[in-house]
Predict the 3D structure of the following.
Amino acid sequence: MIIVMSPNATKEQIESVEKKLTELGFKTHTIVGEYKTVIGAIGDKRHLDTQFFSTLPGVESLVPIMKPYKLAGKELKKEPTIVEVGDIKIGGDEVIVIAGPCAIEEEKSFIETAVKVKEAGAKLLRGGAFKPRTSPYSFQGLAEDGLKIMSEAREVTGLKLVTEVVDPRDVELVASYVDILQIGARNMQNFRLLKEVGMYNKPVLLKRGLSATIEEWLMAAEYIMAEGNHQIILCERGIRTFETATRNTIDMSAIPVIKENSHLPIFVDPSHGTGSWKYVPAMSKAAVAAGADGLIIEVHHDPANALSDGPQSLKPEKFSELMQEIAPVVRAVGKKFNV
């Protein structure tokens, strides 16, 4: 439910409404506008006496939220969310690129790759320290040693860090090293993990599940936001369909659908979306043209010998070429691209 306060409502009247909602078990999300203040009441609407609240001093009207995703949707918050990572603003007028290898394998090559992706124009560095793999016999990552290598790369390059967290017990550890916590496709509906990252004041990159609907994806974001963390970046990384020519099928229509229904920024992962480095340039440019706020691209110094996802990784020189190719597309859609 959205409680719209009258233009002349006092601070005391607004706080009184918030207090009464909290006493009834609701979580409140207050947005102060230029002319009016609105209070989002998130909880079981059966406990909300609409007649009582409509008569409170300062209350102008009550409006039901029709979508199941109350905080992630546009009914309560119409302005785009800008996720700030240091001086980087995600979801604004600049297209942001995250790049780096799928997995952190060893320090020297990781830092070398970090230097090259920064030179090419990437603003954030990705790399997996904990790797949930289909096979239990595949490389599972270097765990905290990988996080330490990422931290060294940040010292050298100044790039902000993005890495996946796969276990609620690891959130505190991972959050102490990196700037953005990634929730992978396999964990999109790991509700305990979503709640845990929701308790941290750290941006979250939430990837779409393997076969998740857009509503399910936004409801996963809702789990994080319900715990108090509203710094969420959605990431379309391809969904599982009948097609086998590519690793997954990138749902480009998800970009305008998300823009219509949610205020959260959306990235596209063309590496996982296609599974082949050859298709990454075309899908990157298509994502920008469709309105994506950014891209996350896998880059590896030696893809043929990568321990994870080599076939979909660009070599640093190819990544640099792609960044130059993306620039005119970004300008064509009226956004900035500092390359």
